[in-house]
Amino acid sequence: MSMNTTSAPAWYDLALCAQTGPSFFFPEPGSSLQDAKRLCGACEGRAACLEYALANDERFGVWGGLSEAERLALRPRA
Ligand code: SF4
């Protein structure tokens, strides 16, 4: 994930990935997401992060431990 600090929501204080930098969560196409997902698994902000990503229709990268495709699967069909 990536966002500037002026618009960061409250849960971002808990975000483990804030310490690693955005490139960690936007892996090169075809590379493994497992490291990012493992970090999310230890993150206290995970639930809020996932909720935020779904609410804001974030398309790219890992959010709340889920890949783009996994989040899409959670999304209700319009
Ligand atoms: S759940 Fe993952 S993507 Fe979300 S804030 Fe935590 S470490 Fe970052």
Automatic annotation (TrEMBL):
Keyword annotations from UniProtKB, A to Z: 4Fe-4S, Cytoplasm, Disulfide bond, DNA-binding, Iron, Iron-sulfur, Metal-binding, Transcription, Transcription regulation
Cofactor: [4Fe-4S] cluster
Top-level taxon of the source organism: Bacteria
Residue span, 4Fe-4S Wbl-type domain: 16-73
Gene Ontology molecular function: 4 iron, 4 sulfur cluster binding; dinitrosyl-iron complex binding; DNA binding; metal ion binding; protein-disulfide reductase [NAD(P)H] activity
A single GO BP: cell redox homeostasis
Pfam families on file: Whib
PROSITE patterns in UniProt: 4FE4S_WBL (PS51674)
Ligand binding ([4Fe-4S] cluster): 17, 40, 43, 49
Cofactor note: Binds 1 [4Fe-4S] cluster per subunit. Following nitrosylation of the [4Fe-4S] cluster binds 1 [4Fe-8(NO)] cluster per subunit.
GO annotations of cellular component type: cytoplasm
PTM note: The Fe-S cluster can be nitrosylated by nitric oxide (NO).
InterPro entries (alphabetical): 4FE4S_WBL, Whib
Localisation per UniProt entry: Cytoplasm
Family, as annotated: Belongs to the WhiB family.
PANTHER family per the UniProt record, alphabetical: TRANSCRIPTIONAL REGULATOR WHIB, TRANSCRIPTIONAL REGULATOR WHID-RELATED
HAMAP family, per database record: WhiB
Function (record text): Acts as a transcriptional regulator. Probably redox-responsive. The apo- but not holo-form probably binds DNA.
Name of the protein: Transcriptional regulator WhiB
Name of the coding gene: whiB
